[in-house]
């Protein structure tokens, strides 16, 4: 007998369809590997949210400083957790070969689960390596734990699949919107921008 882990629902189908559409936009606009600065910001958001879910108190600014090898004042336990997380996320592509011990220190089961989630998703599309899904989970932390509790009682992961697909959709939509804003700002700085839009360059001068 095949064990059933979740049931298909209209919500799962609709969310999967919308995620597929957003991934199409990501691929069409070459967002599979965002710009270096955006990748760094998203990694910091991911680490802050994933560790914050289990009580780490360090801010995004402090995590940025640790990533830049600067001294940070804070609980030594929290600093060590961030250092371990940075190492883990820096080696996602080689995660199968990583030692899990450092990342599992204290409240590590949830963290390890979210890290494996990233590894699995990035095999489907490289953009998931840089997508801060954990930030959306942190924003709805109470709902996150309620859904996990409900799944434990029901013996099925259906509600969690629906919940996580919703967060993936939100994260992808935010990435696409951020990139659109970036291109819009670049366009306004362009010498071809005039008022409400881009003006056509003069064919004689190229300006």
Short description:
The chain has 207 residues and is mostly helical. It has helices at 10-28, 36-52, 60-67, 76-90, 108-124, 133-139, 141-154, 158-189, and strands at residues 193-194, 197-198. A two-stranded antiparallel ribbon has the order 1-2.
**First-to-last CA distance:** 70 Å
What structural category do the secondary elements indicate?
Answer: mainly alpha
Average pLDDT number: 81
Oligomer: single chain
Please state roughly what percent of the residues sit in beta strands, choosing from under 5%, 5-15%, 15-25%, 25-35%, 35-45% or over 45%.
under 5%
Helix-strand topology string: HHHHHHHHEE
What is the number of helices? 8
Please give the share of residues in helix.
55-70%
Number of strands: 2
Count of individual domains: 1
Low-confidence stretches: 192-207
Report the sheet with the most strands, covering strand number, pairing sense and barrel closure: 2 strands, antiparallel
User: Strand order within the widest sheet?
Assistant: 1-2
User: Which word captures the global form?
Assistant: globular
Radius of gyration: 20 Å
Description:
By secondary structure, the chain is mainly α. It has one domain (35-184). 62% of the residues lie in helices and 2% in strands. It is built from 8 helices and 2 strands; from the N terminus they run ααααααααββ. It has a two-stranded antiparallel ribbon. Strand 1 and strand 2 (197-198) form a beta hairpin. Helix 7 runs antiparallel to helix 8 (158-189). The longest helix is centred in the C-terminal third of the chain and has 32 residues, at 158-189. The radius of gyration is 20 Å and the shape is globular.
């Amino acid at each position: 007998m095949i064990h059933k882990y979740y049931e298909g629902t209209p919500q799962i189908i609709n969310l999967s369809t919308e995620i597929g559409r957003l991934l199409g936009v990501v691929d069409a606009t070459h967002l599979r590997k965002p710009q270096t600065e955006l990748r760094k910001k998203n990694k910091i958001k991911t680490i802050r949210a994933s560790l914050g879910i289990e009580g780490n108190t360090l801010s995004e600014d402090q995590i940025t400083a640790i990533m830049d090898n600067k001294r940070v004042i804070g609980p030594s336990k929290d600093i060590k957790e961030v250092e371990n997380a940075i190492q883990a996320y820096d080696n996602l592509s080689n995660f199968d070969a990583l030692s899990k011990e450092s990342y599992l220190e204290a409240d590590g089961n949830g963290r390890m689960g979210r890290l494996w989630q990233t590894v699995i998703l990035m095999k489907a599309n490289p953009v998931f390596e840089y997508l801060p899904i954990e930030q959306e989970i942190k924003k709805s932390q109470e709902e996150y734990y309620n859904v996990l509790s409900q799944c434990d009682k029901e013996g099925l992961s259906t509600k969690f699949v629906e919940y996580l697909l919703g967060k993936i959709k939100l994260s992808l939509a935010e990435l696409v919107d951020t990139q659109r804003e970036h291109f819009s700002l670049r366009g306004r700085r362009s010498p071809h921008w005039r008022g409400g839009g881009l003006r056509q360059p003069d064919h004689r001068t190229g300006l």
